[in-house]
Design the sequence.
């Protein structure tokens, strides 16, 4: 997660805190001031994201035979970021292919183009897939799916930080530009169709606020940040409770009913002793809650699981257990969901809201003016009456 985490955390904390909604789903029952969530009893499909720390680290990761053995025991897939088209990266994929581990081509762009897919880099996404096809043919690689990671351009947002005037102008302009989002949806839908026509399944990885946008029938945050509401064969909501520990698994409880697949995390950071990452208790809690809603579970990331000893423990994990999500966590998520949906409505109806506010201000000014006029007239009458009496 190296440089990615340093760019992602500030924005993701905000976005995750905005990404709550839906009503409280039904579970096995209450347990005091919380909700008990029952696991699925059998292991769901599990996949791991990996290899964002450089090629040497990725090669060393899979040099460990225990890692490969554990992945095979879990029947787990691995999403490898396609950050370049080198022989070294191809060798990692070929080793996983030879071990019988399903590999997902996690399509990434260059840092110059924003790394993640969004409304601002559709042509680059098409070019990247064409390059992936050639590289795949050149090295004889095999993919179980192609993954499209749809996130804002965090580099662009970082550049606007501290320039509040530019940021306000940029966001205001985008908030009214519905055509940009519509063109991006059409373009990415065409890209997904092209990928599928080549025989690949397509996974999409989406920010958590997308579920609230769909419930509110809004595209306001998409317009602001350039994210795109588009689906492939399987969609994963990235519900990283490590970024919002005060909410915890409440985010999964609230958004789980809206998810086809859920990715939990994060299990590793660049800080000493992986500070800020999920503990085993937190990860196991999130896995049980997520698997209550879906059979498709992702974990970010494999390296953190290996470093903290989680991967081996997952091979004997009890998926039939239940966990209790605190009521406070769920209530916080619900309140934030109500707030974000109100914000989405206001954003989509900003002209109407502004007009109403202006009319209210005019009405208040008129009322105050009438009151003052009447007050002054009354004082004048009282003054005249006093003079007449004198």
Sequence:
């Amino acid at each position: 997660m190296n440089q990615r985490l340093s760019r992602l955390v500030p924005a993701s904390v905000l976005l995750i805190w905005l990404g709550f909604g839906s009503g409280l789903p039904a579970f096995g029952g209450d347990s005091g001031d919380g909700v008990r969530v029952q696991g699925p009893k059998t292991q769901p499909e599990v996949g791991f994201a990996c290899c964002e720390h450089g090629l040497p680290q990725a090669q060393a990761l899979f040099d460990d035979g225990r890692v490969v053995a554990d992945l095979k025991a879990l029947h787990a897939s691995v999403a490898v970021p396609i950050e370049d088209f080198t022989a070294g990266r191809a060798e990692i994929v070929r080793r996983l292919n030879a071990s019988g581990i399903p590999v997902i081509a996690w399509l990434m762009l260059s840092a110059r183009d924003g790394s993640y897919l969004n409304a601002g880099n559709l042509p680059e996404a098409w070019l990247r897939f064409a390059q992936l096809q050639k590289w795949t043919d050149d090295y004889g690689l095999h993919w179980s799916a192609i993954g499209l990671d749809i996130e804002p351009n965090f580099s662009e947002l970082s550049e606007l930080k501290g320039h509040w005037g530019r940021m306000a102008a940029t966001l205001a302009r985008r908030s009214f530009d519905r055509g940009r989002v519509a063109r991006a949806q059409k373009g990415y839908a065409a890209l997904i169709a092209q990928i599928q026509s080549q025989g690949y399944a397509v996974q999409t990885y989406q920010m958590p606020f997308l579920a609230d946008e769909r419930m509110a029938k809004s595209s306001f945050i998409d317009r602001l940040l350039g994210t795109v509401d588009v689906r492939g064969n399987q969609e994963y909501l990235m519900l990283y409770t490590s970024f919002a520990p005060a909410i915890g698994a409440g985010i999964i409880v609230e958004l789980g009913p809206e998810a086809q697949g859920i990715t939990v995390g994060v299990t590793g950071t660049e800080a000493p002793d992986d500070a800020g990452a999920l503990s085993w208790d937190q990860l196991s809690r999130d896995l049980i809650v997520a698997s209550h809603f879906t059979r498709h579970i992702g974990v970010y990331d494999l390296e953190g699981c290996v470093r903290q000893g989680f991967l081996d423990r997952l091979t004997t994990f009890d998926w039939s257990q239940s966990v209790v999500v605190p009521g406070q966590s769920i209530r916080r998520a619900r309140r934030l969901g109500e707030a974000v949906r109100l914000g989405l409505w206001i954003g989509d109806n900003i002209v109407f809201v502004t007009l109403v506010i202006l009319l209210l201000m005019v009405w208040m000014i008129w009322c105050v003016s009438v009151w003052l006029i009447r007050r002054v007239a009354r004082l004048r009458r009282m003054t005249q009456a006093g003079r007449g009496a004198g």
Notes: The chain has two domains: 2-348, 351-390.
